[in-house]
Protein backbone atom coordinates (compact mmCIF):
# COMPACT_ATOMS: atom_id res chain seq x y z
CA UNK A 1 0.00 0.00 0.00
CA UNK A 2 2.84 2.34 0.88
CA UNK A 3 4.45 1.70 -2.49
CA UNK A 4 1.17 2.48 -4.26
CA UNK A 5 0.76 5.74 -2.32
CA UNK A 6 4.33 6.74 -3.18
CA UNK A 7 3.67 6.00 -6.84
CA UNK A 8 0.50 8.05 -6.75
CA UNK A 9 2.29 10.99 -5.12
CA UNK A 10 5.12 10.89 -7.65
CA UNK A 11 2.57 10.63 -10.49
CA UNK A 12 0.59 13.59 -9.19
CA UNK A 13 3.74 15.62 -8.74
CA UNK A 14 4.82 14.83 -12.28
CA UNK A 15 1.38 15.79 -13.58
CA UNK A 16 1.50 19.02 -11.56
CA UNK A 17 4.90 19.89 -13.04
CA UNK A 18 3.63 19.14 -16.55
CA UNK A 19 0.49 21.22 -15.92
CA UNK A 20 2.57 24.16 -14.71
CA UNK A 21 4.79 23.94 -17.77
CA UNK A 22 1.74 23.75 -20.00
CA UNK A 23 -0.07 26.67 -18.40
CA UNK A 24 3.06 28.78 -18.42
CA UNK A 25 3.20 28.47 -22.19
CA UNK A 26 -0.45 29.43 -22.63
CA UNK A 27 -1.55 32.88 -23.80
CA UNK A 28 -4.01 34.45 -21.45
CA UNK A 29 -7.02 36.44 -22.73
CA UNK A 30 -8.14 39.35 -20.61
CA UNK A 31 -11.86 40.01 -20.48
CA UNK A 32 -12.90 43.53 -19.60
CA UNK A 33 -16.20 43.95 -17.77
CA UNK A 34 -18.30 46.81 -19.16
CA UNK A 35 -19.63 49.52 -16.93
CA UNK A 36 -23.24 49.84 -15.88
CA UNK A 37 -24.00 52.33 -18.61
CA UNK A 38 -22.57 50.00 -21.23
CA UNK A 39 -24.46 46.92 -20.02
CA UNK A 40 -27.73 48.69 -20.77
CA UNK A 41 -27.23 47.97 -24.47
CA UNK A 42 -25.23 45.19 -26.14
CA UNK A 43 -24.56 47.37 -29.18
CA UNK A 44 -22.45 50.09 -27.53
CA UNK A 45 -18.92 50.21 -28.91
CA UNK A 46 -15.81 51.80 -27.50
CA UNK A 47 -15.48 54.01 -30.57
CA UNK A 48 -18.65 55.17 -32.31
CA UNK A 49 -18.55 55.61 -36.05
CA UNK A 50 -20.55 58.62 -37.25
CA UNK A 51 -21.46 58.17 -40.94
CA UNK A 52 -23.23 61.00 -42.80
CA UNK A 53 -24.30 60.44 -46.42
CA UNK A 54 -21.77 57.62 -46.78
CA UNK A 55 -18.92 59.68 -45.27
CA UNK A 56 -17.33 58.42 -42.06
CA UNK A 57 -16.70 61.49 -39.90
CA UNK A 58 -14.92 59.46 -37.22
CA UNK A 59 -11.76 59.47 -39.35
CA UNK A 60 -11.40 63.24 -38.90
CA UNK A 61 -10.44 65.26 -35.84
CA UNK A 62 -13.00 67.29 -33.87
CA UNK A 63 -12.48 70.68 -35.61
CA UNK A 64 -12.79 69.05 -39.06
CA UNK A 65 -15.92 67.19 -37.97
CA UNK A 66 -17.43 70.44 -36.72
CA UNK A 67 -16.56 72.29 -39.96
CA UNK A 68 -18.08 69.56 -42.17
CA UNK A 69 -21.27 69.39 -40.11
CA UNK A 70 -21.73 73.16 -39.98
CA UNK A 71 -21.09 73.51 -43.74
CA UNK A 72 -23.66 70.81 -44.48
CA UNK A 73 -26.26 72.35 -42.17
CA UNK A 74 -25.88 75.83 -43.66
CA UNK A 75 -25.80 74.76 -47.31
CA UNK A 76 -28.76 72.39 -47.30
CA UNK A 77 -30.98 74.23 -44.84
CA UNK A 78 -30.66 77.57 -46.62
CA UNK A 79 -32.01 75.90 -49.77
CA UNK A 80 -34.59 74.14 -47.59
CA UNK A 81 -35.85 77.43 -46.14
CA UNK A 82 -36.08 79.09 -49.56
CA UNK A 83 -38.12 76.20 -51.00
CA UNK A 84 -40.39 76.09 -47.95
CA UNK A 85 -41.35 79.74 -48.33
CA UNK A 86 -41.64 79.27 -52.09
CA UNK A 87 -44.20 76.46 -51.64
CA UNK A 88 -46.33 78.54 -49.27
CA UNK A 89 -46.21 81.47 -51.69
CA UNK A 90 -48.37 79.40 -54.09
CA UNK A 91 -51.85 80.88 -53.93
CA UNK A 92 -54.28 78.65 -52.03
CA UNK A 93 -51.67 76.31 -50.50
CA UNK A 94 -51.53 77.81 -46.98
CA UNK A 95 -54.29 75.59 -45.45
CA UNK A 96 -52.40 72.41 -46.43
CA UNK A 97 -49.39 72.57 -44.12
CA UNK A 98 -50.11 69.16 -42.60
CA UNK A 99 -50.33 67.56 -46.04
CA UNK A 100 -46.93 69.02 -46.93
CA UNK A 101 -45.59 67.47 -43.73
CA UNK A 102 -47.10 64.12 -44.79
CA UNK A 103 -45.38 64.29 -48.19
CA UNK A 104 -42.15 65.38 -46.51
CA UNK A 105 -42.26 62.46 -44.07
CA UNK A 106 -42.92 60.06 -46.96
CA UNK A 107 -39.85 61.28 -48.85
CA UNK A 108 -37.74 61.17 -45.67
CA UNK A 109 -38.77 57.53 -45.10
CA UNK A 110 -37.77 56.58 -48.65
CA UNK A 111 -34.44 58.41 -48.37
CA UNK A 112 -33.74 56.78 -45.00
CA UNK A 113 -34.53 53.32 -46.38
CA UNK A 114 -32.18 53.84 -49.33
CA UNK A 115 -29.35 55.06 -47.09
CA UNK A 116 -29.88 52.21 -44.63
CA UNK A 117 -29.45 49.68 -47.46
CA UNK A 118 -26.08 51.21 -48.34
CA UNK A 119 -24.53 50.67 -44.93
CA UNK A 120 -23.33 47.31 -43.62
CA UNK A 121 -25.10 47.24 -40.25
CA UNK A 122 -28.87 47.31 -40.91
CA UNK A 123 -30.00 46.33 -37.41
CA UNK A 124 -32.48 48.46 -35.49
CA UNK A 125 -30.70 49.28 -32.26
CA UNK A 126 -33.03 51.82 -30.62
CA UNK A 127 -36.21 50.28 -29.10
CA UNK A 128 -39.52 50.67 -30.91
CA UNK A 129 -41.18 52.45 -27.96
CA UNK A 130 -38.50 55.14 -28.09
CA UNK A 131 -39.10 55.60 -31.81
CA UNK A 132 -42.83 55.98 -31.25
CA UNK A 133 -42.13 58.83 -28.82
CA UNK A 134 -39.56 60.45 -31.15
CA UNK A 135 -41.96 60.12 -34.10
CA UNK A 136 -44.76 61.82 -32.14
CA UNK A 137 -42.45 64.69 -31.20
CA UNK A 138 -41.16 64.96 -34.78
CA UNK A 139 -44.72 65.19 -36.08
CA UNK A 140 -45.42 67.92 -33.55
CA UNK A 141 -42.38 70.04 -34.30
CA UNK A 142 -42.48 69.78 -38.12
CA UNK A 143 -46.23 69.64 -38.62
CA UNK A 144 -46.98 72.59 -36.34
CA UNK A 145 -44.06 74.51 -37.81
CA UNK A 146 -45.29 74.02 -41.38
CA UNK A 147 -48.86 74.84 -40.41
CA UNK A 148 -47.81 78.05 -38.64
CA UNK A 149 -46.64 79.48 -41.98
CA UNK A 150 -50.29 79.81 -42.94
CA UNK A 151 -50.65 82.41 -40.16
CA UNK A 152 -47.21 84.02 -39.76
CA UNK A 153 -44.58 85.68 -41.90
CA UNK A 154 -41.63 83.39 -42.57
CA UNK A 155 -39.08 85.59 -40.67
CA UNK A 156 -41.33 85.54 -37.59
CA UNK A 157 -41.53 81.76 -37.72
CA UNK A 158 -37.76 81.54 -38.10
CA UNK A 159 -37.04 83.95 -35.22
CA UNK A 160 -39.18 81.73 -32.99
CA UNK A 161 -37.08 78.76 -34.06
CA UNK A 162 -33.95 80.74 -33.23
CA UNK A 163 -35.10 80.79 -29.61
CA UNK A 164 -35.35 77.02 -29.44
CA UNK A 165 -32.38 77.22 -27.09
CA UNK A 166 -34.73 78.22 -24.25
CA UNK A 167 -36.92 75.09 -24.22
CA UNK A 168 -33.87 72.92 -25.03
CA UNK A 169 -32.23 74.15 -21.83
CA UNK A 170 -35.41 73.47 -19.86
CA UNK A 171 -35.68 70.03 -21.44
CA UNK A 172 -32.01 69.36 -20.66
CA UNK A 173 -32.62 70.12 -16.98
CA UNK A 174 -35.66 67.84 -16.62
CA UNK A 175 -34.73 65.03 -19.05
CA UNK A 176 -30.95 64.71 -18.64
CA UNK A 177 -30.41 66.56 -15.35
CA UNK A 178 -28.06 69.13 -16.90
CA UNK A 179 -26.96 72.33 -15.17
CA UNK A 180 -26.30 75.63 -16.90
CA UNK A 181 -24.15 78.58 -15.90
CA UNK A 182 -25.03 82.27 -15.77
CA UNK A 183 -23.92 82.82 -19.39
CA UNK A 184 -26.48 80.28 -20.64
CA UNK A 185 -29.21 81.87 -18.53
CA UNK A 186 -28.26 85.33 -19.85
CA UNK A 187 -28.40 83.94 -23.40
CA UNK A 188 -31.90 82.61 -22.79
CA UNK A 189 -33.04 86.00 -21.41
CA UNK A 190 -31.62 87.88 -24.41
CA UNK A 191 -33.35 85.50 -26.78
CA UNK A 192 -36.63 85.84 -24.93
CA UNK A 193 -36.54 89.66 -25.04
CA UNK A 194 -35.53 89.63 -28.71
CA UNK A 195 -38.34 87.21 -29.50
CA UNK A 196 -40.96 89.35 -27.77
CA UNK A 197 -39.72 92.50 -29.51
CA UNK A 198 -39.69 90.79 -32.92
CA UNK A 199 -43.24 89.49 -32.44
CA UNK A 200 -44.50 92.95 -31.44
CA UNK A 201 -42.89 94.43 -34.56
CA UNK A 202 -44.52 91.79 -36.73
CA UNK A 203 -47.93 92.40 -35.19
CA UNK A 204 -47.74 96.14 -36.01
CA UNK A 205 -46.27 95.83 -39.52
CA UNK A 206 -47.78 92.65 -40.97
CA UNK A 207 -51.47 93.03 -41.95
CA UNK A 208 -52.15 89.27 -41.77
CA UNK A 209 -50.67 88.70 -38.31
CA UNK A 210 -52.57 86.00 -36.42
CA UNK A 211 -52.05 84.90 -32.83
CA UNK A 212 -52.87 81.31 -33.86
CA UNK A 213 -49.55 81.14 -35.66
CA UNK A 214 -47.73 82.17 -32.47
CA UNK A 215 -49.46 79.40 -30.51
CA UNK A 216 -48.63 76.80 -33.19
CA UNK A 217 -44.96 77.72 -33.45
CA UNK A 218 -44.66 77.85 -29.65
CA UNK A 219 -46.01 74.30 -29.39
CA UNK A 220 -43.60 73.27 -32.14
CA UNK A 221 -40.73 74.72 -30.11
CA UNK A 222 -41.76 72.76 -27.02
CA UNK A 223 -41.77 69.53 -29.02
CA UNK A 224 -38.47 70.49 -30.63
CA UNK A 225 -36.91 71.08 -27.22
CA UNK A 226 -37.78 67.60 -26.03
CA UNK A 227 -36.87 65.81 -29.26
CA UNK A 228 -33.27 67.06 -29.30
CA UNK A 229 -32.59 65.72 -25.82
CA UNK A 230 -34.42 62.42 -26.45
CA UNK A 231 -32.49 61.86 -29.69
CA UNK A 232 -29.17 62.62 -28.01
CA UNK A 233 -29.91 60.25 -25.13
CA UNK A 234 -31.17 57.42 -27.40
CA UNK A 235 -28.32 57.64 -29.93
CA UNK A 236 -25.62 57.67 -27.27
CA UNK A 237 -27.22 54.92 -25.18
CA UNK A 238 -27.93 52.47 -28.00
CA UNK A 239 -25.33 53.64 -30.57
CA UNK A 240 -27.99 54.14 -33.25
CA UNK A 241 -27.04 55.40 -36.69
CA UNK A 242 -28.39 58.57 -38.32
CA UNK A 243 -30.09 56.66 -41.16
CA UNK A 244 -31.82 54.38 -38.66
CA UNK A 245 -33.05 57.36 -36.65
CA UNK A 246 -34.43 59.10 -39.75
CA UNK A 247 -36.05 55.98 -41.24
CA UNK A 248 -37.97 54.77 -38.20
CA UNK A 249 -38.92 58.13 -36.70
CA UNK A 250 -40.25 59.58 -39.97
CA UNK A 251 -41.95 56.39 -41.21
CA UNK A 252 -43.85 56.05 -37.93
CA UNK A 253 -44.60 59.78 -38.07
CA UNK A 254 -45.96 59.31 -41.61
CA UNK A 255 -48.50 56.81 -40.23
CA UNK A 256 -49.47 59.25 -37.47
CA UNK A 257 -50.14 62.12 -39.90
CA UNK A 258 -51.95 59.91 -42.42
CA UNK A 259 -54.26 58.66 -39.70
CA UNK A 260 -54.89 62.20 -38.46
CA UNK A 261 -55.66 63.63 -41.91
CA UNK A 262 -57.97 60.72 -42.70
CA UNK A 263 -59.93 61.20 -39.48
CA UNK A 264 -60.26 64.98 -39.97
CA UNK A 265 -61.15 64.73 -43.70
CA UNK A 266 -58.20 66.91 -44.60
CA UNK A 267 -56.61 64.50 -47.05
CA UNK A 268 -58.87 64.70 -50.12
CA UNK A 269 -58.93 68.54 -50.47
CA UNK A 270 -55.12 68.65 -50.26
CA UNK A 271 -54.72 65.88 -52.86
CA UNK A 272 -57.18 67.65 -55.19
CA UNK A 273 -55.35 70.97 -54.90
CA UNK A 274 -51.86 69.47 -55.36
CA UNK A 275 -52.97 67.44 -58.40
CA UNK A 276 -53.87 70.73 -60.11
CA UNK A 277 -50.41 72.21 -59.37
CA UNK A 278 -48.06 69.20 -59.39
CA UNK A 279 -44.83 71.05 -60.17
CA UNK A 280 -45.31 73.83 -57.60
CA UNK A 281 -46.35 71.31 -54.92
CA UNK A 282 -44.89 67.84 -55.42
CA UNK A 283 -41.89 69.05 -57.42
CA UNK A 284 -40.87 71.67 -54.90
CA UNK A 285 -41.76 69.29 -52.05
CA UNK A 286 -39.32 66.69 -53.41
CA UNK A 287 -36.42 69.18 -53.51
CA UNK A 288 -37.57 70.62 -50.19
CA UNK A 289 -37.54 67.15 -48.62
CA UNK A 290 -34.23 66.14 -50.22
CA UNK A 291 -32.36 69.18 -48.90
CA UNK A 292 -34.10 68.81 -45.54
CA UNK A 293 -33.06 65.16 -45.34
CA UNK A 294 -29.44 66.00 -46.07
CA UNK A 295 -29.62 68.80 -43.51
CA UNK A 296 -31.15 66.63 -40.78
CA UNK A 297 -28.39 64.05 -41.34
CA UNK A 298 -25.77 66.67 -40.49
CA UNK A 299 -27.84 67.93 -37.54
CA UNK A 300 -28.07 64.41 -36.10
CA UNK A 301 -24.30 64.07 -36.53
CA UNK A 302 -23.84 67.33 -34.59
CA UNK A 303 -26.13 66.03 -31.84
CA UNK A 304 -24.27 62.72 -31.62
CA UNK A 305 -20.76 64.23 -31.61
CA UNK A 306 -21.16 67.60 -29.85
CA UNK A 307 -24.53 67.43 -28.06
CA UNK A 308 -27.98 68.97 -28.51
CA UNK A 309 -27.14 72.44 -27.21
CA UNK A 310 -24.29 73.10 -29.66
CA UNK A 311 -26.39 71.70 -32.50
CA UNK A 312 -29.15 74.16 -31.64
CA UNK A 313 -26.62 77.00 -31.61
CA UNK A 314 -25.43 76.12 -35.13
CA UNK A 315 -28.94 75.77 -36.52
CA UNK A 316 -29.88 79.08 -34.88
CA UNK A 317 -27.08 80.85 -36.77
CA UNK A 318 -28.32 79.27 -39.97
CA UNK A 319 -31.83 80.55 -39.29
CA UNK A 320 -30.54 84.09 -38.80
CA UNK A 321 -29.06 83.96 -42.30
CA UNK A 322 -32.35 82.52 -43.60
CA UNK A 323 -34.19 85.60 -42.32
CA UNK A 324 -31.88 87.89 -44.29
CA UNK A 325 -32.37 85.84 -47.46
CA UNK A 326 -36.14 85.84 -46.93
CA UNK A 327 -36.26 89.65 -46.95
CA UNK A 328 -34.04 89.72 -50.04
CA UNK A 329 -35.93 87.17 -52.18
CA UNK A 330 -39.54 87.68 -51.05
CA UNK A 331 -41.36 91.01 -50.79
CA UNK A 332 -42.68 91.75 -47.30
CA UNK A 333 -43.03 94.75 -44.93
CA UNK A 334 -39.89 95.74 -43.06
CA UNK A 335 -39.08 97.79 -39.97
CA UNK A 336 -35.78 98.42 -38.17
CA UNK A 337 -37.29 96.92 -35.05
CA UNK A 338 -36.66 93.59 -36.76
CA UNK A 339 -32.95 94.45 -36.85
CA UNK A 340 -32.63 95.43 -33.18
CA UNK A 341 -34.61 92.44 -31.94
CA UNK A 342 -32.60 90.17 -34.23
CA UNK A 343 -29.34 91.56 -32.86
CA UNK A 344 -30.58 90.85 -29.34
CA UNK A 345 -31.15 87.24 -30.34
CA UNK A 346 -27.67 87.12 -31.90
CA UNK A 347 -26.25 88.41 -28.61
CA UNK A 348 -27.96 85.52 -26.88
CA UNK A 349 -26.37 83.12 -29.37
CA UNK A 350 -22.92 84.64 -28.71
CA UNK A 351 -23.38 84.28 -24.95
CA UNK A 352 -24.31 80.65 -25.42
CA UNK A 353 -21.27 79.96 -27.61
CA UNK A 354 -19.06 81.80 -25.10
CA UNK A 355 -20.37 79.70 -22.22
CA UNK A 356 -19.31 76.55 -24.07
CA UNK A 357 -15.82 77.89 -24.78
CA UNK A 358 -15.01 79.87 -21.64
CA UNK A 359 -11.60 78.21 -21.35
CA UNK A 360 -10.66 79.31 -24.90
CA UNK A 361 -12.39 82.71 -25.01
CA UNK A 362 -11.39 84.91 -22.09
CA UNK A 363 -13.25 88.20 -21.93
CA UNK A 364 -11.92 90.95 -19.66
CA UNK A 365 -13.88 91.50 -16.46
CA UNK A 366 -15.38 94.84 -15.42
CA UNK A 367 -12.92 95.09 -12.53
CA UNK A 368 -10.01 94.48 -14.91
CA UNK A 369 -11.23 97.14 -17.35
CA UNK A 370 -11.70 99.66 -14.51
CA UNK A 371 -8.23 98.93 -13.13
CA UNK A 372 -6.68 99.28 -16.57
CA UNK A 373 -8.37 102.65 -17.18
CA UNK A 374 -7.19 103.95 -13.78
CA UNK A 375 -3.61 102.92 -14.54
CA UNK A 376 -3.78 104.65 -17.95
CA UNK A 377 -4.99 107.86 -16.28
CA UNK A 378 -2.12 107.72 -13.79
CA UNK A 379 0.46 107.30 -16.55
CA UNK A 380 -1.06 110.23 -18.48
CA UNK A 381 -0.95 112.52 -15.46
CA UNK A 382 2.65 111.51 -14.69
CA UNK A 383 3.68 112.19 -18.28
CA UNK A 384 1.99 115.60 -18.19
CA UNK A 385 3.67 116.59 -14.91
CA UNK A 386 7.08 115.49 -16.15
Q: Can I get a quick summary?
A:
This protein is mainly α.
Structure explained in plain terms:
By secondary structure, the chain is an all-alpha fold. It has one domain (60-358). Helices cover 76% and strands 1% of the residues. It has helices spanning 2-24, 36-39, 62-88, 97-118, 128-148, 154-162, 165-175, 182-205, 211-238, 242-263, 267-276, 278-306, 308-329, 336-356, 366-385, and strands at 51-52, 55-56. A two-stranded antiparallel ribbon has the order 1-2. The longest helix has 29 residues, at 278-306. Residues 20-47 have low confidence and may be disordered. Pfam families: UAA.
Structure keywords:
mainly alpha, 386 residues, 2 strands, globular, two-stranded antiparallel ribbon, 15 helices
Strand residue percentage: under 5%
Tell me roughly what share of residues is in helical segments.
over 70%
Going across the biggest sheet, name each strand in turn.
1-2
Count of the domains:
1
Based on CA atoms alone, the radius of gyration comes out at 29 Å
N-to-C series of helices and strands:
HHEEHHHHHHHHHHHHH
* Rounded mean pLDDT score: 74
N- and C-termini, Cα separation: 117 Å
Largest beta-sheet details: 2 strands, antiparallel
Number of helices: 15
Taking pLDDT < 50 over at least 5 consecutive residues as the criterion, the unreliable ranges are: 20-47
Amino acid sequence: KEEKEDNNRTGCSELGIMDLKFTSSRKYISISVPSKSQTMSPHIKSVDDVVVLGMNLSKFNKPTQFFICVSGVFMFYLIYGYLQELIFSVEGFKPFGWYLTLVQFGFYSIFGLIELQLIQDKRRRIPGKTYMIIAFLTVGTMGLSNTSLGYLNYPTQVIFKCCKLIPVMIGGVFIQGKRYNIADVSAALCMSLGLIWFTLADSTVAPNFNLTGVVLISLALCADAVIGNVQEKAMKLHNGSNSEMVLYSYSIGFVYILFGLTCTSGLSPAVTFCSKHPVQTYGYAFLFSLTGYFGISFVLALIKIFGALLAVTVTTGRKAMTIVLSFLFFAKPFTFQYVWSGLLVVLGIFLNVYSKNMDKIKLPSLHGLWKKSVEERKTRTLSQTV
